[in-house]
Amino acid sequence: MHRPLVRRAAVVLALLATATTLAAQQFPTNATHGKRPTRLVIRNATIVDGNGTPARGPVDIVVEGNMITDIVALDAVATGRGQGRRPAGDVNIDATGKFVLPGLINAHAHLQSQRSGHSLDGYEYNLKLWLANGITSVREVGSESDTGIVNIRERSAKGDIVAPRVFAYPMLGGRAKTPAEVRARVQYLKKLGVDGIKTTGIERDLMVALEDEAHKLGLPIAHHVGVEETNAWDDIELGTRSIEHWYGIPDAAIIDKRQHFPSDYNYADETDRFRWAGRLWREADPKLLDSVLTMMVKKNVHWVPTMDIYEASRDLQRAQNQPWFKDYLHPSLAWYFKPDPANHGSYFLGWSSTDEVYWKENYRIWMSALRDFERKGGVIGCGDDAGFIYQMYGYGLIREMELHAEAGFHPTKIIQHCTGNNAKILGVEDKLGRVRAGWLADLIVVDGNPLEDIKVLYAGGTTGLKNGKEIRTNGSEWVIKDGIPYSGPQLLREVKAIVDKAKAAEKK
Q1: Residue 221: which CATH number?
Q2: Would you call 5 helix, strand, or coil by DSSP?
Q3: Of 1, 133, 350, 434, which residue is most buried, by most CB within 10 angstroms?
Q4: Which of 65, 71, 78 lies closest to 46, judged by CA?
């Protein structure tokens, strides 16, 4: 083992040992699922903040109402003598041996009540899976209804439903066909009270109108670039807040401006679309790509790569056999995942090992570009785009974090991507994405060390070995959103009940 890793492990063990000592002063967990206490104290926690700094602890974290009001560093010796200052609380969560992170933020999420006409039994399945995986905020980038997502946002803010906080970024939509119609649509969405707008597949004159009107009204733009007139150079020029996925970035670095499609290519054919997307990064000129990334950083164009949503393209069998499918995959979502040219992303008819090889190379270049982007000072976010291509809500974001690790990012930076960086992309970095006094109380209490193994963040946890014995971690044992504690295991039980009911109805 490398000496830095040994030292890091020793520091973490020391933190946990200190927390164990402090636990001698008992504060048993007495939080109630779904009920906000007046004054909650998370005891003996080890913090991993959303600013990329190392773990620290033990601390007591004080939450009053929906705010973090104090973080008290603990002295093991003084506390053991009964001399240490321990804040009072009417409700406690014992975090001894646990890690506390800011609530995860999913910067590319879709709220779905059905998949191509097959019901998901409302939004509860979506919402509780997100929370169970430690996601306390989502940027919803195109749902079934503009007014519907705003309504969910307001109900979540009031605490009327069990849900993450929501940032509404509805689609511009294809109904706007002229610059004037685009401006009218932006004005309508502003009056509706949305937080931003997502666009895709847009002609340049319409994009110019969109960006101009949105900037006037204070609405940021998230751009899912397709094979279209625009690419990252347009986002740089016009002031896009974030590029979603990755299309548009390598395209902008192709010397002759267009990928070399075969003569029979059809973008509307899902298999064609994804097969040739797997050949795109290799066509980018390295020097020109460097210029694109440099200018994205200079103009504050952020990047939400959603690597998880394309992973089936490089390893289809892995994607089709994820362990949480057994208990938590809703039958309507399972139906949507089956290869079907009519369903977006369900394109795996005739998918070959050759296609997977191209995609593996695609990922290698893509990940290298991400590393270069951050080294230049770029802001990388985290989103999962779940509900498509074998990715389930919540679980997809944790897998996205694993892929950030594969790309070469340190675990503290990966957590920052999914917390502090996402808060910056949303323009709320002064109140979300940190474990810090004065910030909103969106927190997760994790059973296991995410700096050692990101898998401990999956809802339901993961298996490991300790002293030669198999152990099971519990994922996010407590998910605290807006000061309201939710039991992670209880949320999973409720999701399973929804799935079991749907399976039973399917058999009738």
Answers
A1: 3.20.20.140
A2: helix
A3: 133
A4: 71
Distances (CA, A) of 294 to 190, 290, 307: 32, 6, 21
User: How far apart, in whole angstroms, are the C-alpha atoms of residue 150 and residue 154?
Assistant: 6
Residue where one domain finishes, among candidates 401, 426, 451? 426
Tokens standing for residue 367: 């990940």
Tokens representing 472?
């099971």
Domain that holds residue 8: 3-102+434-503
Contact present, 442 and 486 (Cβ < 8 Å) = no
Binned average pLDDT, 10 residues per bin, the chain of 508 residues: 50 50 70 96 97 95 98 78 78 97 98 92 96 98 91 96 97 90 97 97 95 98 91 97 96 92 91 94 97 98 98 96 97 94 88 97 98 98 97 98 98 98 98 98 97 96 87 94 98 98 90
> Is residue 93 domain-resident?
yes
How do strand 135-140 and strand 104-109 relate by DSSP bridges? Answer: parallel
Give just the sign of the alpha carbon dihedral 425, 433, 312, 370. positive
Q: State how far the alpha carbon of 212 is from the alpha carbons of 11, 33, 185, 220, 242, in Å.
A: 51, 45, 13, 11, 16
Token match 């000072």: residue? Answer: 377
- Decide: 72 and 122 in contact? Cβ < 8 Å: no
Q: In sequence order, what are the residues at sequence separation of 6 or more whose Cβ sits closer than 8 angstroms to the Cβ of residue 369?
A: 249, 250, 281, 289, 293
Task: Enter the pTM of the model.
Answer: 0.93
